[in-house]
Structures are given as C-alpha cells and as structure tokens.
Amino acid sequence: MKPTTPGPARRSAADPVKALMHRHRELCARAVDPLEIAAGLEAHGVTDRTAVRFRHRDVFSLAEEMYARVARDGEATPPPTVEQTSGPRADWALLTLLPGALCVATVTGIHLTDGRSRLVAALVGFLAVSLAVRAALSRGPLGTPDRAPATGTSTWTYWLLAYAALGDGLLAAAVTGGPDALPTGAADAPWPLATAPLLALTLSCGPAAWSAHLFAARARRKLAVSRGLEDFAASVRPLLLGTFALYLCVLTALSALSAAAVAEPAALPQVIALGALLFLARLLTVHGFTHAPGVVLTAAATAQASALAAAFASRLPGCGVLAAPVDALVDLWGAGGIQTLSCGLGALALLIHGARKLTRASAHARAEDSC
Hints:
Elements: H1 8-14, H2 16-23, H3 25-30, H4 34-43, H5 48-52, H6 59-73, H7 89-112, H8 115-136, H9 153-174, H10 196-203, H11 205-225, H12 229-262, H13 268-286, H14 291-313, H15 324-333, H16 336-357
C-alpha cells in the first residue's frame, strides 16, 4: 500500500504553534508586543495548562514565539504603528478636580441663600456638577477608551447620588408619617438635604482617578515581568486590594472634612459604602467589564426605591405589613441603614467579581492607553 502524502492537517499537527497562529491571525496582526498576544490568548480561553500542548511552559512563552514568528514569516506582519502617548496628565487631572470644585461652589451657594434663590442655586449647581462628572469620566484613567457598550449605569449612578443627598431624610420622615413639606436645603428641615456626602464623593473623583491610574500602570508592569497567568493573577490581586483600600482611606478623610465644613453629621458608613460601590463599578467598566456593574448598580438603586415605596405604600388600608422590614432596619441601624446595606452588599459583590476579572492578563492588554 502506498503511503499517503502528508497534507495540511499533518503539517499543522507537526507545527501546532503555526496552526494556533492561523486561528488567531487577526490577534497576531494587530499585536505590537508579545504581551498583547498573551492577553488575547487568555481572553480566548488559552491557559498555561493549554500552552503545554503547544510545547511551551506558559502562555507568555507561547506568545513570545508567536510574535517572533509573525515578524519572521511575514505572513501577518503587523502594520507600522505610531506609538500612542496619552495626553498630559494635567488634562485629566484637572477634569477630575472640577466636580469637587463645582460642588464646593454649589454647597456654598445653598448655605448662603434661602427661598427661591436657594432653589436656583441648587438646580444650577446640580447641572454644572453633572456635566463636570460626565467630563471627568470621558477621558483619563476613569474613561473608557474602547467605548465599552452602554449598560444604562449613568441613570442608576445619578439615582444613588440623589438618594445620598435626599434619601435618608425622606425615609426617616416617611416612617414617622412625613414629610410635611418639600426639602428647603436646610439640614434641620423636616426633609433635610445632606450635602456632605455629595461633597465628599465629588471631591474623591481626583483620588479615584489617580488610584485607577496607579492600578493600571502597576498591573501593566507586572504583566511585563510575569511568566504565567497564575503568577500574574497572584501578583495583581494584592495590588487591587491595596488600591481599593487607598481610595477608601482618602474617601473617609474627605467625608469627615466635608461633614465638619458644612456642620452636618458625618454619615461615614453610607458614604464609604456608596463610594466603594461607584469606584469598583467604574474600575470594572474601564477595563471592559460592564455587565456586572450595571446589574449591581441597578439592584442597589432598586432596593433603595423599594424601601421608600414600601414606607409610603404602608399607609394604604391593609398594607401596613409592607413597611415591616423597613421599620425593622430603621430601628436597628437608623435611616442610613438602607443605603449602607444596599451599597455595601453591592460593593462586596463587585469586589469579589473584580478579584476574578481584574486579575486576568486580558483586562490589562491596553489599560495604559487611557492613562
């Protein structure tokens, strides 16, 4: 019997790396360094254990050979690219400081005016701060350079911020039969307006951006020196926790200073829980993970809205039982317990999710472009 001539399948079996290169031709073509190939392979499910089948000890070693062979074989030579340098740090640094500065001006205007003038100052300040926050999230470490798909998180973020300012006061009044009037902007009104949480959160935009920049830059360095996916994940996990803790420390200090500046009670648990939730949601969104932040923010906002709705619906005949869980939480932890619980559980869920997603090499393939 005449031996069969080795065909393309046999040649691919003899050279498994070449077959892998054909399978990921676009990835190899656009990669500017082996790290991008390694991150892309990991995103497609190639692990260090899989790399052994391609006669390599880990994904990084496999990516180095693929990158070298692309340039040598000329099959998919990457086009010449101009090194993209991020804009000056002063650009996004000033943008992240703008929300806090405008919020300080707005709070000052609210405290120096009354009546209709106070309402005008609050509305104008709200619009100005909203636009400043949007600008701060459009570029720099808190921006999404690859235009991640929209998940509607902006609406729920504004709800959470509005609840931080008005929600606790409204809930406290609702469980006692109020409120008897609309908010006037005074801290001692029947429906008080809490300006200290908003002041602390907007002032923390700058520290949040620097923390995100620090995390992205350090993770990229660790990606360059790591020799395995598990090694990289183990080195990035404490970096993530340290960055998160650093932001919370700064937010705690800003919350205490803001409360002292406007002579309001320091709602530290609520502010820390909400700040942690928003920071982790943005960090995941920046690195391309948008689904979980959208779900968790929606759940937190829904829980807060449900608590308010239950408090008011319980006034209907025969519906008093609806407010029993809310009354129990308010009696146990105060009106701020709803916000602390909903945002705190959401932040914990995102932290666990981020410990899995943000420690992957594929999450940092182009993380430094936005910094």
